[in-house]
Amino acid sequence: MKALVVLYDGFAEFEYEIPALAFYDFDIAFDVVGLESPSVTGMIGLRANVSQTLDQVDPSLYSALILPGIEPSTREKAMNNETLMALIRKYDQAKKIIAAVCAAPVLLGQAGILKNRRFCSDARDQPAFQGAVRVEGPVVRDEHLITGLGSRIFHFTALLVEALTSQEKAKEYRQWAGISI
Q: Helix 153-164 crosses helix 167-177 at what angle (to 10 degrees)?
């Protein structure tokens, strides 16, 4: 499996970095792209320079889409990016893994794929969540969709490792991270 990580202005740096470290540790192949620019600035001001933008990659080469959290001031721009919305819908139709943490599940709702599905998110009262089933928990997997709270990034990453590798490797990660779900 190879994962595609999309970074956008206002992404939560630790919600990208912690899964990326796990990907390195468990030999999970992944590429990182910018949503609209190869230079992206995170929530706390760290700049990420990537070699490609989303419209320059072939999404058929990836079996998973990873979306770190996004701050409110830049969320709407990502929500209105039709390339991203189309990719989310395409991955959903193909039943590929889609993982969104913190406020990024808003992007899934905006793409129209959360209706009648369970999710968790740090974002509240979002019109994009209409018809979705909010779960109060650290992380939720509903078929091929994985959502989680930013404050529980290790739980989210464990479920992501499990989806991309095996229960055994996820157990190793949980032991390393000191979590029990």
A: 160
Tell me which residue range forms the domain holding 130. 2-177
State pTM to two decimals. 0.95
Q: What is the CATH number of the domain that holds 113?
A: 3.40.50.880
Cα 161 to Cα 180: distance, rounded to the nearest angstrom: 14
The pLDDT profile of the chain, 181 residues, written as one tens digit per residue, is 899 999 999 999 999 999 999 999 999 999 999 999 999 999 999 999 998 999 999 999 999 999 999 999 899 999 999 999 999 999 999 999 999 999 999 999 999 999 999 999 999 989 999 999 999 999 999 999 999 999 999 999 999 999 999 999 999 999 999 997 6
**Closest C-alpha among 19, 1, 10, 2 to residue 100:** 19
Total tally of structural domains belonging to the chain = 1
Which of these, 73, 87, 66, lies nearest to 18 by C-alpha position? 66
